[in-house]
Specification:
Order of helices and strands: HHEEE
Number of helices: 2
Largest sheet: 3 strands, antiparallel
Structural class: alpha+beta
Oligomer: single chain
Mean pLDDT: 91
Number of domains: 1
Length: about 120
Amino acid sequence: MTRDRGQATVELALGLPFLCVLLMGVVQVAVITRDRLAVQLAAREGARAAAVSADPAAAEKAAHSAVSLTPLAIRTEQSGGAVHVSVRYTDHTDVPLIGAMLPDVVVEATVSMAAEPP
C-alpha cells in the first residue's frame, strides 16, 4: 500500500497538459463560432438596409454598426430586383497554445433580399 503514494499526483502531472490543450481548443472553436454568427448577422443587417435604401453605402454602414468585428470586407450587388450582400472576415486564431498551431480562418456569409421599390 505504501508504494502507491503519489500515484494520483503523477497521473495529474501527466494528464494536465493534455487537458489544458483540449480546453484551449474548445475555447478557439467557440471564438470562431461566435465570429461566424457575427458575420452572418452583419450580412443580414446589411442586406436589410440595402433592400430598403437607395444609398449603396447603407449596407456597409448597417453591417459595421451591427457587429464590432474589424476589418469587415463588405460587397453589395444588385441584380434582378434583389440585393446581395457578402461579408468576409479573417478570424485570427490567437488563443494561447492553439493559435500557433492553426492557420487563420476566413469566415464569409452572403445574404440576398428582394429590393423594395423606391
